[in-house]
Each structure stands twice: as C-alpha cells, then as structure tokens.
C-alpha cells in the first residue's frame, strides 16, 4: 500500500510580520493533536543556540540548528510535522530535502523572509514557494506611514542600504525596518 504523502506550507513576509508567532500557533495546534513536531533552524553563524518552545501543557519542542539542508536527515526522529524556521538562509538543496520529507509523509512548515533587503527573492524561497501547497504571505506595519508593509528596509550606518551592498555585511552597523512599497528605499 502506498504511504500517504505530506505537503509543504510556507509562511513568509518581511521582518516584524509575525512569522514566528504564526509558526508557534501551528506548532501548538499540532501538539494539541498529539503529533510529533521537530523544529529546525539554520545555524548561520556558529553560535549553537537552542531556543525552546513550550507548548500549552508544558511539553517542550527544541529548535535544532543545522549547517546545511541535508543535515536535517541526521536529526530526523519520525516527526509528523517538521518546521523549518529562517528557511531563507538555507542552500537551494532545501527544496529537494523538503520534497523528500513530503514523500515520507511529513507535513513541512517552512517560514522565512521571501525577499532580501534588495527586494529580490531570498535564497531558496522562490523555489520553495513554487513547491508549496499553501502559502501565507503576511505583512508587517510600515514604520513610516502605518500601511501594510511587505518590504524589509535595511539601514546601514544610519542611511538606506545601497544596491551593491552584500547580503551579509560584516562590521557595519545594520538595522532593519518594515516598510511599504512607497516608503521602501534602495539607494
Ligand atoms: Zn509606508
């Protein structure tokens, strides 16, 4: 008998749009349904930090940091639901990994920034969005005008970022804001 396949749902949007809250909501619901949940996150720099998410009845779900997409398989412990947070930082292999997880019957929930500070698709996100059965693109609030914000504005040393700035800038004082299309600036 063929095993039932899973599916992938993507939660995306700019910074400060509440992606983590939405993830937590879905994780809590899965736990209430007594499903096994595993949470993965990209450990982009070597800080080995594990955030613990606590469910309604005190059961803990730990976040497992991995260095690349394939490493997810090393930690698989028969989950019904597999959450990938900050999925934009993963290599393109995450798309194939996600398909393999789906083929094993797992419901995959992937959350991350759909666009980088240049408003280009962030890493593997365009491929993941194409693969997804369900996409929720959520907005933040523009810090300038209060409209719905779908852009992440990067500020470098006090001024809007430039087009040719690298995605990861070492040494510069970076901050980020949610902005709408009208208020977003790329110098
Ligand atoms: Zn605005």
Helix tally equals 4
N- to C-terminal separation?
58 Å
In angstroms, what is the radius of gyration?
Answer: 17 Å
**Beta-strand percentage?**
25-35%
The total beta strand count reads: 12
Described by strand count, sense and barrel closure, the largest sheet is: 7 strands, mixed
What is the succession of H and E elements? EHEEEHEHEHEEEEEE
CATH level 4 superfamily of the largest domain: P-loop containing nucleotide triphosphate hydrolases
CATH class of the largest domain: Alpha Beta
Low-pLDDT windows of residues: 46-50
Mean pLDDT: 90
Shape: globular
Bound molecules: zinc ion
CATH architecture of the largest domain: 3-Layer(aba) Sandwich
* Sheet with most strands: strand arrangement: 3-4-2-5-6-1-7
Helix content: 10-25%
CATH fold-level name of the largest domain: Rossmann fold
